[in-house]
Amino acid sequence: MIQASGLRKSFGDFEAVQGIDLEVRRGEAFGFLGPNGAGKSSTMRMIATVSPRSGGDLQILGMDPATHGPDIRACIGVCPQDDTLDNELSPRDNLIVYGRYFGIPRRQVRAKAEELLEFAQLTDKADGRVEAMSGGMKRRLTIARSLVNDPELLLLDEPTTGLDPQARHLLWDKLFRLKQQGVTLVLTTHYMDEAEQLCDRLVVMDKGKIAAEGAPRELIATYCTREVAELRFGIGEHEALAHRVEGIAERVEVLPDRLLLYTDNGEHTLGEVARAGLHPVASLVRRSSLEDVFLRLTGRTLVD
């Protein structure tokens, strides 16, 4: 569905995407993770054929965006990060007007609008005004709108940002159903649990390059231990105590409010901590997550 080789994007002297290679297979959910400025949005805009590449090769649905941009755009759906709905129109009219941009006949687009309103669970809101709907409803309508042309490939930029947990899980269910129907999904997200839930494969981008690629569980197995033991001591004590647990775990990370001990057996590690004469105020053992991978690869320093 998507094949890139040595893909680059420059803005003047700044190279936002620095020669990446990737392949997205038909019917899978593929994710882009990375801190702000990593190059995710620039890559997505090139895939959406709204931003020309600066170098390398890119094929979307077997076509070159430089010469077949309109043909590609007719076959893909795009759900932008910000809702760009017509607030003065009803949900039904938003879908009908958008569908007409694709040249879909009126009778056909009206039937499609009803189908998508049901898919988005907005049938009872079909004739109200969009501006009166909740954030979750607007997000569902934006995703429904991106499906009006029956796309083979759906691009989603931060699809659940700002939504409450209930709305996020409802959208996850909708996206999972789309994948079951054969739609290829490509998404960016800052939610690590979302990436674990939705993505068959993903890449972690940092500073315009791909730092890692694989299935979520494969990345966790490669870059982390099976479990993490978290130890909390008194304020200001963590750095001073770090050397006393260095031999107990495979890797130790010092944070201002806790010590992270990366290990394959968390309970055993807590026992070793106690035998070393250390008595944390609080401790817990958890499964290693994609967030641990993300932070190890991209660091904990805030990027603006």
From TrEMBL:
<dbReference type="InterPro" id="IPR027417">
    <property type="entry name" value="P-loop_NTPase"/>
</dbReference>
<dbReference type="GO" id="GO:0005886">
    <property type="term" value="C:plasma membrane"/>
</dbReference>
<dbReference type="InterPro" id="IPR003593">
    <property type="entry name" value="AAA+_ATPase"/>
</dbReference>
<dbReference type="InterPro" id="IPR017871">
    <property type="entry name" value="ABC_transporter-like_CS"/>
</dbReference>
<dbReference type="GO" id="GO:0016887">
    <property type="term" value="F:ATP hydrolysis activity"/>
</dbReference>
<dbReference type="GO" id="GO:0046677">
    <property type="term" value="P:response to antibiotic"/>
</dbReference>
<keyword id="KW-0046">Antibiotic resistance</keyword>
<feature type="domain" description="ABC transporter">
    <location>
        <begin position="2"/>
        <end position="232"/>
    </location>
</feature>
<comment type="similarity">
    <text>Belongs to the ABC transporter superfamily.</text>
</comment>
<keyword id="KW-0472">Membrane</keyword>
<keyword id="KW-1003">Cell membrane</keyword>
<keyword id="KW-1278">Translocase</keyword>
<keyword id="KW-0067">ATP-binding</keyword>
<keyword id="KW-0547">Nucleotide-binding</keyword>
<protein>
    <submittedName>
        <fullName>Lipooligosaccharide transport system ATP-binding protein</fullName>
    </submittedName>
</protein>
<dbReference type="GO" id="GO:0005524">
    <property type="term" value="F:ATP binding"/>
</dbReference>
<keyword id="KW-0813">Transport</keyword>
<dbReference type="InterPro" id="IPR003439">
    <property type="entry name" value="ABC_transporter-like_ATP-bd"/>
</dbReference>
<dbReference type="InterPro" id="IPR050763">
    <property type="entry name" value="ABC_transporter_ATP-binding"/>
</dbReference>
<dbReference type="Pfam" id="PF00005">
    <property type="entry name" value="ABC_tran"/>
</dbReference>
